[in-house]
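re: ur question from the group chat, yeah i did fold both. here u go
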Amino acid sequence: MIEVKKIVDEANANMQKAISHLEAELAKIRAGRANPSMLEGIHVDYYGTKTPLNQVANVTTPDPKTIVIQAWDKGTLPLIEKAIMAANLGFTPVNDGNVVRINMPALTEERRKELVKRTKTEGENAKISVRNFRRDANEKIKKDIKEHLPEDVAKDAEHKIQQMTDNYIQVIDKHLGVKEKEIMTV
């Protein structure tokens, strides 16, 4: 019984991680307004070490169309600018000597549709992860049936795992709907 609870809890934790990963990936997809999380994942070559941008500079959004990056060491501004260009995010940084500014270009209809498609791909990847965690948990339970687990306990556990899977798929769909609406809003 304890092993079944452990399997169910592990599946739940893994499914929650899939949702967290989806949320992080969706935050990186720009939806017409500036967001500091768009620059997550950018690493600056800081004294020979690849350092995350948020560890060498302060990233803010003074208005919905602008991102301002204030480096703690002004000598790193060209490195920050270079790192943003290398990331190929679809916008051009402007270095004025004090800060790096990024003015967000308006999204075209074609670009919006591309972003929605990317959003759906991320959602599908999250659903696949959730289903894989369900499969793994069910396989562990089936293995336990062969060893010593009563069938009715196994069926209850499989039912519980299926309910969790359905709930997480609904959460994913909700996140996708919100993000798609956000992207398509002009």
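okk and heres the other one u asked abt
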Amino acid sequence: MIRVVLPYHLKNLAHVDGEVELSVPGAATVRSVIDALEVRYPMLRGTIRDHVTRERRPFLRFFVCQEDISLDSPDVPLPEPVVTGAEPFLIIGAIAGG
């Protein structure tokens, strides 16, 4: 099981508390995790990735094992600690402003 931590606004939209646990078929990648998340919580479609391009929304970041992987290919396999559930897959809302 892959543990996913969502930012507050996406937790509210999906009506979940705490972490989400997902079973991801095949290789665990950013793409497959987001696909599984959107299947389980259809109200999140288009909030994490653009509907058309399927690219990450600009003000969301992905972290695994304390590393920002937001700019990596969405098809790179996730690290073993994330795949085994020892470490969570974090979706973080970026902060911007002046």
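fwiw on the second one: The longest helix spans residues 30-40. Residues 2-93 form a domain with the Ubiquitin-like (UB roll) fold (CATH 3.10.20.30). idk if thats what u expected
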